[in-house]
Structures
1.
Amino acid sequence: MTMLTPFPTQPLAARLPRTLPLLMGVGPTPIPEPVQRAHGLLINHLGPTMNGVVEAVQEMARYVFQTESRRVFGISGPGSAAMEMAMANLLWPGRRALVVVNGTFSARLAELGRRAGAEVAVLELEPGTGIDPAALAEVLDAQPADLVAMGQGETSCGAYHQRLPEAIAVAKARGALVVVDTVVTLSCMPFLADEWGVDVALTAGQKGLGSVPGVSLIAFNEASWAAVCARPAPPAQWVLDARLAERFWMDHQYHYTAPTPSLLAMYEALRLICEEGLEARWARHAAHSGALQAGLEALGLTLFAAPEHRLASAVAVRVPDGVDVDALRARMEDRHGVQIAGAFGLPIFRIGQLGEQCRRVPVLRTLSALGEGLVAQGYGEDAEAGARVAAELLGA
Ligand SMILES: *Cc1c(COP(=O)(O)O)cnc(C)c1O
C-alpha cells in the first residue's frame, strides 16, 4: 500500500489576518450578528423543526420578493445556481430565449440558456447602460422568444435597468416568460415581483440580503411553474431540477441534504429585512449610496454609469488616469482594513452598498481609506474631502 504521508499544518487563524477586513466589495458583504450566530448552528434537515424554518423562510422571502407565489425555493448553491435553476428548467432544445446583456452576469444567463440547449438571442447594451423598452419590443417583434431574461442590476459595471417594469410588460405582451436576476438589488432597491409580472425572480444570499454565500432563493409563479411542468423531459441537472426541489420545499421530503446552517442564517437575514421593512431599507440604501457617490465625486472621481442607469447597491468608479488601481486596493486593505472590488476587464473599481455596507461608519471609513490611497498616489490633495461631504449628507 502506498500512502501520502501527513505533513505539518497550520490552524486557520494563522492564515487569516488578525482583524478581518471590512468587506466593501460587491459580495460577500458583512453579515449582522444574528445571522452569524444562526450560521453557527446545525440542526437536522428533515423533521418538524426544519419544516417550520423552511415555511418561515418561504413566507419571509415572499415579502422580500413581493410575491404571493407558492413556489419559493431555497437552493444550496451560489446565485449562479439559482440562475441555472431558472434557465435549465424553463429552457430546452427548441425553446427560444432573449437575454438582455450589459455585463458579466447577464452574459452568464445567456450562457446558461445555451447550455440548456435553447436558441438564445442576445440584446447587447453598452456596459453601464440600461434597457430601452422600445428596443426590446423591436427585437422581440422581429424574433419572438418564449423567455426573456435579464438582471435588474448588472454588478460588473454598476448598471441598473430603471425601466425594468416597462420592459417586463413589453416581454409579457409578446407572450414571453420573464426571468429577473435580483442578486444585486433585492431588498436594496425597489422590486415588486407580482406587480411587475415577473415570472421567475431569483437572488443570492451574500449580497443585499446580508446572509452567507451558499444559499440562494428563487420564486416561480403559476405561469413559469406550468412551463416547468410542461417540459418534454427532465433537465440534465438533477440537483437543480425544480420539480425535485419542490419535494423538499413544498412537501418536506428528502431531495438532497439541505445546508441547514446556511438556511438558518438566511432565516435571520430575512427576518431582519422584514423587521426593518422594505421601504425603510430602500431609503437607507438610497441615502447611504447617495452620500457615498457624492463623496466619490468630491474626491475628483467619475462614476461609470449615468445617474439614470446607476445602481445604488454597487457603485462603479472610473479608474483615473495615472492611478494604479491594484496598488490602491492593496493599500486600502493593508493600511485601512477596507476591501473594495476590482473589475472584470473594465477600467473601473467597485464599491458595494449592499445591506450592512449601507451604514454611516463603513461608508465614511471607505471614503477616508480611498482618499488617503489616492493622495498617496498623487491624485488630489485632500484625503478627507469625500468623507466630509458624505458625513454632511448623512447628518449627525
Ligand atoms: C454576484 C451576482 C451573481 C452571481 O452570484 P454568485 O453567488 O457569485 O454565483 C449573479 N448576478 C448578479 C447580478 C450578481 O451580482
Note: Residues 27, 78-80, 105, 151, 153, 155, 181, 183-184, 204, 207, 213 surround pyridoxal-5'-phosphate (CB under 6 Å).
2.
Amino acid sequence: MEWKDRINVTKASLPPYEEFAEAIRPLWESHLLTNMGIYHEKLEKELKGYLGVQELSLIVNGHMALELALQMMGFPEGGEVITTPFTFVSTTHAIVRSGLIPVFCDVKLKDGTIDETKIERLITKKTVAILPVHVYGNVCNVEEIEKIASCYKLKVIYDAAHAFGVKYKGNGIGIYGDASIFSFHATKVFHTIEGGAVTFREHKYYRRLYNLKNFGIRGEELVEEVGANAKMNEFCAAMGLCNLKHIDDAFIWRQKCYNLYRKYLNDVKGIKFFEENSLVNSNYAYLPVLIEDDYRESRDELYNRLGKYNIFARKYFYPLTLDQICYMDKYKDAEVNNARYLSSHIITLPLFEGLEREKIEKICKIVAE
Ligand SMILES: *Cc1c(COP(=O)(O)O)cnc(C)c1O
C-alpha cells in the first residue's frame, strides 16, 4: 500500500514552504535559535490577541504545559485533583508526575466533558484543584465549575489541548478557570510542530512559569527556583507565526468537512453526533461519532472495516486513561460509567485541512452502507 493512499484521522497543516523558509532566514544571521528569542516573544503576543487572553506563556509542548501549570500553583504533595479519564493519557500523567493524586469524575454522555453535578461528592480535605478537559473542543460547564471551585476554594486548570480558537459566549475559552493549557502538537488544529502554552489570569504566574521552563535562572549567577527546561525554540515559534496567518482558512475548511459529515451521516441508524452548544463557536478539531447499539455492527467492526479501505479512524479515547496498564487496578473503584460507555462506542473519523469532499463522501458511504 502506498503511504499517500492512506486517509489518516488527521494530517498536519503546513504553511507554504517559502513562507517558512523566509521566516527562518534571520536565524542564520542572528544564530539565536532558542532562549526566548524574537519569535518566542512575537508568538506570545500574537497568541494573546488571537485567543483573547490576558496572559500566556509558551511551553515546549502541551504535556509540559500541563505539568508546569500544576506546579506553578504550588500544591502540597499528595493533593487530590478532580479530573476525568476520557482524555489523552497526558492529562492523567501530568497530575501523577507532579506528585498529585487524580480523582476521577464521570463525564456527560451528551458531550464527553466532566459531569459537574458529580464533582462535589468527590471533594475531600485533600482536594486542591479541578482539572477538566474540553474534550474534542466541547466546552465544559465553566460557570458551574467556577461556582464549585470558589465555594471550596479550589483552583481550576482546564486541559484545553483540543480547544484552540474555541469561543464560549464570544469569549476565548482560555479566560476561564485559573489557567488553561493548549497543545500545539503537529496533529492539533494549530501547531508549532511541537509546542504548547499556558494561559492564565494572574500576572504573577508569568514569572513562575518563566522560572519553571528555564531552570529557574534569573541572572548570570542567580538561580531562583528548581525549574525544568521547557522552552519553545525559535524554529517552532516561527512555524506558529506562519500557521497563525492561515488559521482562519483552516477553520473554514474544517467546518465544511464537519457539515458534510453531518449531512451524510445524520440519518444513519445508530450513528450519533455529540450535542452542539449554541453558545459555542467550535473549532471543528475532531469528528467523533458514537456507534450505538442499533448500528449494524460494533464500533470495533466498523473501525476494522474502514481500515480495509485504507481509512484509519481512531478509537479516541479508548481505553480510558485509568484502565491503561501503567495505572492498572489503582483507580478501579472510580465510578465512571458514562466515560466507559463513550470509550467503548466512540470512533473519530478523519478531519483535517485539505481533506477533499470526495474522500468524505467515500468514508460516509462506507459507514452508511
Ligand atoms: C495532545 C494532548 C495533550 C498533550 O499535548 P502535547 O503537545 O502532545 O504534549 C494533553 N491533553 C490532551 C487532551 C491532548 O489531546
Note: Residues 41 and 187 are 24 Å apart (CA to CA).
